[in-house]
Amino acid sequence: MRNLVVAEHDGTHLRSASLSCLTFAKMVASVTNSDVAWLVLGHGVEDVAAEAANYVPVIAVDSPALAHPLAEPFSQVIAYVARARRIDVLSAATSTFAKDILPRAAALLGGTMASDVVRHELVDGQLQCDCPQYAGAVTATLRLTGSPQIATVRASAYPAAQAMDSQAHAVEQLQVVPAMLTARAQYEGLKSKQKSRPDVTEARVVVSGGRALKNSQDFERLVGQLADVLGGAAGCSRALVDAGITPNELQVGQTGKIVAPELYVALGISGAVQHLAGMKNSRTIVAVNSDPEAPIFEVADYGLVGDVYTVVPELIEKLQYHAACATG
Amino acid sequence: MKILVPTKRVPDTDQKIVATADGTRVAVDHIPYVINPFDAIALEEAVRIGERLGESVEVVAVGIGGEGYEQQLRTALATGAHRAVHVVCGQTLDPWNVARLLRAIVEWERPQLVLMGKQAVDDDASQTGQFLAALLDWPQATFASRLELQGERIRVERETDHGIETLNLPLPAVVTTDLRLNEPRYASLAAIMKAKKKPLDLIDAEKLGVTIDPRIEVLRYRSAETQRRCERVRSVDELIERLRNQVGAIV
Q: How many CB pairs lie under 8 A apart between chains A and B?
């Protein structure tokens, strides 16, 4: 069984979620006694390919036409490589990139796909995948029929793969015919968010704010600052996105990002099922809410009933004091 | 122009969803069905395009499923769709086969734009729109939070993990809709009455020349366990102590 992992990167580095997907692929490979390769697509991706080669061999397709992640050329190249190399299992970490491109590639290859795999098993050489459904209320075990089998993999469900210390693997530069790189969709630009903090999907600590936060200044002063003190990412519930207080990239939940950090701090979040779907697998969950009956407490390890406007400044101050004592 | 809006009939996920004890299915018998909320957003957007551009726009809602589907399609008509097509099919369908049936409908109806939800809130797969775009060999834009029709093209702002991306696509195209695109209206009583007279065509799935070819078999369902015992702490000091002593997560 041959396994191919589509690497997601920022032009310079692999995204850490891809390393979790690589673990999935290596687990499949070890059971089926087969091999794993990366597929790195983009323009000017020598650095990414070199980094990826520290893990497993790399197939790289480098072209100006792949400078932006457009679904048409990306899916055409992925499907071509999967066919040419007789790939059995094609995967990528769940993200808006993979959710856009991988299903399109899957359809070009014949339509066998599982989304957001959190656990898998090989039974008689066939992949069986656990996939969350109904906003995580239910987990379905799916058997995929047909080949190749394609999966997006939830990064928080698999540990990141470790790089080899010995020599790097080979990078194969693959040329494809220009027709495969054509896109009718034109890329016009990306309004990216500020990068002062890590992404919620990549941080060990996530501090999230909900409806109790009244405006973006308060969000920054309370949620943002606590995130900084804890060296973590700032996130939010859908309520704040809908209210225009925070950008959608910060949203944790069924329609936002799914996270499972070591510590998740929910500030003024009531705990709608859509939000819980995005964070309930975090290792430790702390909830601060003025309503003692808020459902967020049902998934929390530690709960403090109180107003975030008084609790959080005190928490920040005391954590800073502890940190100063520890270093001083 | 014609806009086709595929809709999925799903259990209302504001209700508590659990697997049956034997794990063979999701216990939905007591739960009302609704149009998948993301598809409702797609429908609303199509209706608004129609309201802006006038009578040249025809909005056609499509539903694939058993007899119960008529109610949701009537709701779609009451929301502003001009016509509805009910593809009658009793089989359980995975996204691949839904996309194949939709391709047949698209080839019959020949819309310039297919607008649909980015995912269905039951299986959360987020595959069907992309599958359909590939099967039709049309350009796609997923997770749209803003649309602008520009003659024979459509400009789409997309919600990505790294910010808002803007694409410009020639029509015909498949666009899937994200939450922030709009807030769907509620149908007025007058609209509900009027919708009863709007055309709702029935087509037997078999007549579309698509042989259902399942790619996914659900072996079992199980309810998620979220059993944590929440320890209530009384003060910030107590919280910090717990985190430092018991978690070690504080850096």
A: 258
Of B16, B127, B215, the CB nearest to A146: B215
User: Are A254 and B124 a contacting pair at CB < 8 A?
Assistant: yes
Q: What is the CATH number of the domain that holds B75?
A: 3.40.50.620
Domain locations in chain A as residue ranges:
3-181, 205-327
User: For A286, which of B13, B143, B239 is closest by C-beta distance?
Assistant: B239
User: Using CA atoms, how far apart are residues B174 and B115, in angstroms rounded to an integer?
Assistant: 6
Q: Which long-range contacts (CB under 8 A, 24 or more apart) does A303-306 make?
A: A303/B230, A303/B231, A303/B232, A303/B233, A304/B232, A304/B233, A304/B234, A304/B235, A304/B236, A304/B239, A305/B232
What architecture is domain A205-327? 3-Layer(aba) Sandwich (3.40)
Residue A276 has pLDDT above 80, yes or no: yes
Determine the distance in angstroms separating the CA of A171 from the nearest CA of chain B, rounded to an integer: 27
Question: Is 60 exceeded by the pLDDT of residue B251?
Answer: no
The answer to whether residue B23 scores a pLDDT higher than 90 is yes
Interface probe with A: pick from B100, B157, B162, most Cβ of A within 10 Å: B162
Interface of A with B in 235-254 (CB under 8 A): 238, 241-242, 247-249, 254
